[in-house]
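Posting for a labmate who doesn't have an account.
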Amino acid sequence: MAARPGICSASSAPFTTNTTWGGSIAASTKTNFVWLPDDNGLNNNGPWYTTDGGANWNPSSVSGVAPGGPTGWGANYYNDVQPLWADRVTAGTFYIYNAFGDARQGVYKSTDNGATFAQVYAGNFGGGFGGATQFRAVPRRAGHAFATVGNQGGTHPAATQLFRTSNGGATWAALSNVKETFCVGFGAAKPGGGGYPAIYVVGWVTYAGVDTYGIHRSVDGEQATSTWTLIGDGFPTGSYSTIKAIDGSNAVFGMVFVVTGGNGAYVGTDDATTVSLPPPFPATPCVVTPTHQMDGR
């Protein structure tokens, strides 16, 4: 299989966790990753980190949370829970959200490449912990992140909102005119604007008192009361497959990408012009060499 230049190796975390549910992974640099297994808390599912591109992995130490048993890190495999993220400015800084309903619940931060984590925020977010909870770091803004708290069942929009932090997870605030959201991403700032990356969400935003589902964009999302524009109905080219991820182009304002749960990926722009994208892979594939063996699996 072909791979992009510079991404020509593969690695696997130690399989001592006894989990086959995958999990979340975040990269701070080309060699510093944190992996959080996802097994619903049934086994040893604490985070692991590497500083040498995956050649060696070590368990992280999380203050107040045991490495095994019901830890609060895991989630059902069919939920779109992504509780791990890396700061996109400050190298070696990672965050994890723990959903356990006791003193362990909250946001944990690491500033030493994932070796140790300490709680910086206690408690949950409004509406609890939904099945489509995702955390995303804001590019070019140290300590900034957004959190969706979408539910995968029940009545929509659920009583949840979009939350943001600008101080490394220590405090979180809800955006007042945004309701239930399922995914969030960022793109190039609006030319002539304030310079903050454009924010894209999939979910419900309130326009003139009406909760409207779709794909929405804000160019002032750092404000407590942000303004939003509906840029899509949430069903790209008529596809009714659920959108699982969204992100904008870092180079072109108004260009946005969405990935569905079964009907492919789509790109949209502010106008109807044809979008020409470079080929995703080089003509000559590189050799992919594993750096760690997973007990014969």
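Reply:
Got it, the structure tokens are right above this. Confidence is low (pLDDT under 50) at residues 1-9, 272-279, 290-297.
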